[in-house]
Amino acid sequence: MSKAKISRLRQVVEENLGIAQPRWEYLKSNGNCLPFGVDFETSAVLDRLSASDLRDVCDVGVPLACLSASGENLESLAANSVGVGAGPKLADSAIDPLVIVAEENLRVLTNRWAALKEDEVSARILYRLAEDQIQWLRHSTMDDLKRVSVAGHPCVRFAVSPKYFFHCRPHLAHAQRTALALTTSTRRGR
Fold first, then answer.
1. What's the rounded Cα separation, in Å, for the pair 23 and 32?
2. How many structural domains compose the chain?
3. pLDDT, tens digit, for every residue of 116-133?
């Protein structure tokens, strides 16, 4: 496996954990994941996972989350945001939903933006990007990504159904978890 492919796989696993773990921690402390648009069924399955199970679930070769906002919505969020430095900061609260949303928005947008610059075809397939999302990302700057991130609107949702979290067990090999994630994926893009 090439260094670039290993690096991309590591980035996908880090993104998966960076999105699932804060949602899981919020769920454990607050009893729901509603601020992140996570439905009751997914919340119920996530609630049954241990920290170790969660790490295993996230160690998969495809992103477990996708960009849920359209290119038009991203453009609107960037245009109407109060500014790059005006959003919530991690120091405000590690469990504040606005902080979690801002961080996951920035992580997902940045990963897709960078991937498009490296290899558009692979990025389109790996990240399940719709054409309008690609167009917005292609013409955006890092400041645009930051403005969208701090707008307070979740732009990320799980790309897999609750079945993935339910059936994915530690005994499954990496390739089996990846196949399960692909077969339980919800529709592409939005």
1. 9
2. 1
3. 999 999 999 999 999 999
